[in-house]
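the three lines:
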Amino acid sequence: MNKPDDILIRLRGITKTYERGGESLCILESLDLDVPRGSFAALMGPSGSGKSTLLNLIAGLDKPTAGTIDIGGERIDKLSEARLAKFRASSVGFIFQSYNLLPVLTAAENVELPLLLAPVAASERRRRAQTALRVVGLEDRMDHFPRQLSGGQEQRVAIARAIVNDPLLLVADEPTGDLDRKSADEILTLLETLNEKLGKTIIMVTHDPAAAARAGVIHHLDKGRLSVEAHGEVHA
Amino acid sequence: MLIPIRYNLRSLVVRRATTLATALGISLVVWVLASAMMLAEGVRRTLGSAGRADVAIVLRNGSDAELGSTVEEQQVGLVLAMPGVRREGGQPIGAGETVVIIAAEKVGSAGVSNLQLRGITETGEKLRPTVKLQDGRRPTPGADEAMIGSKIRGRFKGIELGQSFDIKKNRPIAIVGVFEDGGSAHESEVWVDGDIVRSSFGRGATVSSVRVKLDALESFDTFKTHVEQDKRLGLLAMRETDYYEKASEGTGKFIRILGTLIAMCFALGAMIGASNTMYASVANRRREIGVLRALGFSRIGILISFLFESVLLALLGGVIGVVAALGTGSLKFSVLNQSTWSEMVFSFQPTPSIILGSLVAAAVVGILGGFLPAVRAARVSPLEALRG
Amino acid sequence: MTLASLAARNLLRNKVRTSLTLLGVAVAVVTFLLLRTVVAAWTGGAEFAAKDRLVTRHKVTFVMPLPKRYIEDIRAMPGVKASTYCNWFGGKDPKHEREFFGQFACDDGYFDVMSEQQVSPEELAAYKADRTGAIIGESLAHVMGWKVGEVVNLETGIYPADTPWTFTIRGTYRATSRNVDKSSFFFHWDYLNQALPEARRDTIGWTISRVDDPARTAEIGVAIDRAFDDKDTQTLSQDEHTFQASFLAGFSAVLHAFDAISLAILLIMTLILGNTIAMGVRERTQEFATMRAIGFMPAHLRWFVVGEAGVLGLFGGALGVAIAFPLIQGMLGRFLEENMGNIFPVFRLPFGATVAALGLAVALGVAAALLPARTAARVKVTDALRKLA
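prediction for all of em together
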């Protein structure tokens, strides 16, 4: 359903350096990356390789020192903080390693949270949250609080929260890191489904080869440089 | 086995903003309490030091204070002739004095207040050997001159060396001297020649009180018996120290009760603040506490450790509060004294027992506020150490 | 779900902390209101004072009386409707040494000028018919247990007498204005005057005059003082408000102390609120970072924290007012008005202070939240979300 040249994420000459105690530390250097629309990409690499930094840049949480980031035709590397926040609200769905659900809200209310930022009526918010929870298979747990759910269930609520406003892009940072094998499998299957059935573009940081293997393409990041290992539909 | 104090100190330092906020709350309690106690002590000393044990004061029966008392002139001679009165060169040491109050405008505020004006005689000074001239000179007897106590100097319009006030229309009294008396109540008075006061205020042949010097401390009872025996005189005698003690009772008690009441309300607030802080501290350290328990520290050890931390926190506040109260103590507190109906200036008088008492009060706030959180800490299971 | 309900949910998260904080704020508000009520009760007389009444007294000292003939001159002044006079008696009941109450020897027109102190016509007639009669305040009658018809003896050092002064209580007065003292003791000036030695007769402590135009009160006062300026005793005329205010000037240090303490209470309240909010923000760093990642703006989080503090202040303040009302108005106020009416004729929660307390609880909550709110808004998303592994 996607044209191979339909690139959703286009990074060019990305450099990210941090100032730490007067010294500048180069995390990423002149890095290029293309992620096609509708693909499921994994980002792997050893600790400190800069994969989380790269993910943060793509998700609009951080800005590059140099280079351009184009997401779905919008240059986000020069956006103001406020515009970046709007971009995240409308275009990015986040999935974290430790779920980061608000403990005081029920599953449905957690899913509703991003919709508070959009001009959506309360009844519509409720309906959409329900739909999202149905997609992740937790319709019957709507009114449960996070502490009443298992880790896998919590992560599925987090995924529902990520997709509720129909973002361009899902970013997942070690989504299975805190889960047992079985739950992890379920989450990865869910991500695959979202990618295949709903056409969601997913980019996932992981250091688990088994998890990465579920993605269509694996980018390896090492010492600030990328290399690609693809399976299935190959992309150069 | 007790947990090292360093552990508590470190935890207070780590959460320094919260520690400081809580300690400041407690410091306000201590500030109010210590200030009130210091002021009450100041009132006691000011009025207390005005009296001498070897001086007796004679008032009209039924009066508490010189202001409301009237003694007829011919009675003064009778009183001075009583046994127990000291004589020098055949002359009794004693004098009738007239006390009135005059309206005076306060400097720096719109109000008019009352000042005590004392009509004195030359013998009057022999009754108060502690009075010393601080500035200027003594008034000439019979002249329209006054000397003022050092505490009211410059606090009222016209009440300053070199200035004057009207005792009557077109009759100014020049202030030629300033005296001090070891911080006593006299320092809030204006002293003018007794005859001038009596004539200006139409007191005629009456005075307010008679003061006599006793020939020995023990002579008071003899003197008192003789004064009060003659019912027709209608007079009563008091030792000067007792008279001023009684005069300080009302104001001192008022300040002490009010201060304690307010401090108690404050303490309740601060206790709640301390509780809150300690609860948060316990909640943040459940895992740490679990580890301590797993290492073999007993429940009681944990309880004591957290109570100790709370007391430490409170004492920090206590020290800040005492320092603040000592700072307030440099101020002068001027207030209408109930028994004299005139304005008196009091100072805050710190004593070791007030400071110690205030710190104890802070520690009590710490113990009470920290108790329930400490109990919660002691209930943490060693299993908490193993939780993720 | 709305942002407001999320904020409410957060307040309920730590129930112990929230209840303690609410209680702390409530205690502060109650203490604050108690102090303000004391101040209002104390200064209230001055605020409620009649604007059309003038008090004239000795210019230099209030302990010295005026010649009695002055009253005729004052009554003859243009603009003066009625005038009465009193002397301070300064006595006490030897059987109740510790009870302090004011006794005044007044002329019979007193209750006409002081219309707030009402006596029934029958009792007033009985009083006027008895040379040694007395009218007492309801509150004094309650405290001392005196009944109409009872004979009372008083002693005073100001007017020495061989035997105690004897009075017969002929009636009680009711105060129609809340600020009027309900525990005074009035008797006939003539009774006092006739018993005095020749030299001390025919003097009056002060006069109270009613003027026909409240707007001219000050002007008439000046005219009275000018009339006596060349006589042997000069006068000072003040409207009732100034008279009472100048009396309070002696206590200005106490009032200042009360203000300082009130301020300290507000500070304690701010510290309690600020501490709670700061602890809450610190514990929720991760949640704030998540919300930021989802697309919430720093301003959202700032409002969130500030709103939470405002709500905490509002509920704490409301709790405080809810406690203060029955406590001060009901229990304490009634007790003090009945038993210490001479010091606190009106002990009621001042409406302004009550509203101010509520407003301040909210405002100080918000103020205390500003710093934590800044912390929340400045959460570094990437740092806060960094995995611990």
